[in-house]
Amino acid sequence: MNNNAKPAPPLPPVATPTLPVRVDSGEILRGASTVEIEHAGQRYLLRVTRENKLILTK
């Protein structure tokens, strides 16, 4: 028997799919039609249009 055989290298980790976080817009807006969002030192404005769509602007 040959005891000098090296073990096989470990397999790379397998990526597991993750589900995106889902947040209801009402939780973000809290009854307002606009909300400021700060991200990476920048401010964004999230607003609801008359057609009840969301627009995010810088």
Largest sheet at a glance?
Answer: 3 strands, antiparallel
Largest beta sheet: what is the strand line-up?
A: 1-2-3
DSSP strand count? 3
Termini separation? 69 Å
Summarize model confidence as the mean pLDDT: 91
Tell me roughly what share of residues is in helical segments. under 10%
Globally, the shape reads elongated
Number of helices: 1
SS class: mainly beta
Q: What Rg, in angstroms, do the CA atoms define?
A: 24 Å
Poorly predicted residue ranges: none
Instruction: State which percent range the strand residues make up.
Output: 25-35%
Secondary-structure element pattern, one letter each: HEEE
Topology of helices and strands:
Layout (H helix, E strand, L loop, with lengths): L24 H5 L4 E6 L2 E7 L5 E4 L1
Antiparallel strand pairs: 1-2, 2-3
Task: Name the descriptors.
single chain, 58 residues, mainly beta, three-stranded antiparallel β-sheet, 1 helix, 29% strand, elongated
